[in-house]
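FORM 7B: Structural annotation worksheet

SECTION A. Query
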Amino acid sequence: MENIRNFCIIAHIDHGKSTLADRLLEITDTISERDLQEQVLDDMDLERERGITIKSHAIQMEYEHEGQHYILNLIDTPGHVDFSYEVSRSLAACEGALLIVDAAQGIQAQTISNLYLAIDNDLEIIPVLNKMDLEAAMPEEVKDQIVDLIGCDREDIIEASGKTGYGVDRILEEIVHKIPPPEGNPEAPLQALIFDSVFNSYRGIIANIRIFNGTMKKNDHVKFFNTGKEYEADEIGVLKLKQEERKELSAGDVGYIISGIKLSKEVKVGDTITHVEHPCDKSIEGFEEVKPMVFAGIYPVDADEYEELRASIEKLQLNDASLTFIPESSVALGFGFRCGFLGLLHMEIIQERLDREFDMNVITTVPNVSYKVVTRKGEHLEVHNPSGLPDQKYIDHIEEPYIIAQIISKSEYVGSVMNLCIDKRGTLKNQVYLTSNRVEITFEMPLGEIVFDFYDKLKSISKGYASFDYHQSEYKLANLVKLDILLNGESVDALSTLIHRDNAYDFGKRMCVKLKELIPRQQFDIAIQAAIGAKIISRETVKAVRKDVTAKCYGGDITRKRKLLDKQKKGKKRMRQVGNVEVPQQAFLAVLKLD
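SECTION B. Predicted structure
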């Protein structure tokens, strides 16, 4: 155990974690030149296409230093605010962390929040200044920022470049010298924490574990502490580039266990594995339950695929424990699931993964947040979607969640960032100049306002420089109304939203105009209306496709034409009563991108 080091890499998105991880793997000969590709740990196509890390990946490296043989377990983590739950789970399995800061960009919002997560877990932190090879690098300024943030000495900051490999040797030496070896007793009863899991269609569920106490051997009789289920450890091993089988794992090791589990609900990330004969007294303090920020309905395009969708979401939840779901039904879309996500990017990624990994074609409804409704009788309800809202006459008041948002930006963009936040009903709480041209602005604003397009707009007005992080604070009284979209007088529940009264008229008008472009013309007029309760606030009409029935009348008496037109009119009227309107998938998505 003296020679084991467990550490993870934390940073803001795009500060070069995955590239630096590549160099570490290369220098320790964990990966052969033939297998080497950029961002080798990002093994999902989606991660490669978007250039972001979505999943944290564990891998074991072997390193020789001063005649000693060390085993280094590295966990690479995502940097986007929507995947911070992944980061918190990786930190639970480590004793130390590399904090990576881009020498050209400096400290950004997610750097700070990931750092606080690491400090909460009592990890040893090694600061690394990455991308030193860039012409735009400002090492001295950024070092000042790091010293202010962590309180370390300037000499402790390692200058490195993930691209060229400069400084990587020193990083490995510091890992060995600074990060403490894992504590634990190989002789004690077994305690192993599950920090990740994945579904394999041939082998069942593969759980990634970190052993804190005890020793696990192949074919041991083990049980899961929280679910109480018992299994045989069919195969255990360590995570190299591929899984490598071992006969035993003991305290301090990071590895995997396969025990032929088929049902995804039997494995919970954060659960503890122990022996059946000599169980441990208590489970390891796992992670706190995840709090979803954004809710949206996911429905199968074909109603017969409901059960397949359930199985797919369950398998996906194994691999992404921050996804939560409950069944729900909608008048317009049939049966589906109400899913909770950590943010809009998270929602987009889940939808994409369902399509790629499970071939599920799904419709996603308008995302929203959860509200607290107090009725006139004094009952407290939690409402996750607008269709669950009681009638206006029964509601005393509605409370909505507020967040504290921290935005770090260059000083030249402060004005436009403030305007954006004030437009989103934010109130300024604090403004601190970190350096002469970097400002940290703290706003309090409603969570519902940042759900749609806040992040995109923030990036565009600050030319990509502003970074954003938030945490939920409290619920406050809100003047909200339910905005319904009616097609031919029928309400489409999947398009209804809860919105602030001041924004309702403008939003309703834009929705109607957008839907008019997207809904295909029918043989009859389609009325698209936005309504608050019984009051219509906006209307657009998709004109009917009409056949020219009077084309065959060359002159003659006008009554001949009238007769044909009246006959057509009756047909259209009957058609409007029985005809229904198909809403295309783009219409649901277009609502998210209303500008």
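SECTION C. Observations
The chain has a mean pLDDT of 83. The two ends are 57 Å apart (CA to CA).

SECTION D. Sign-off
Analyst initials: ____
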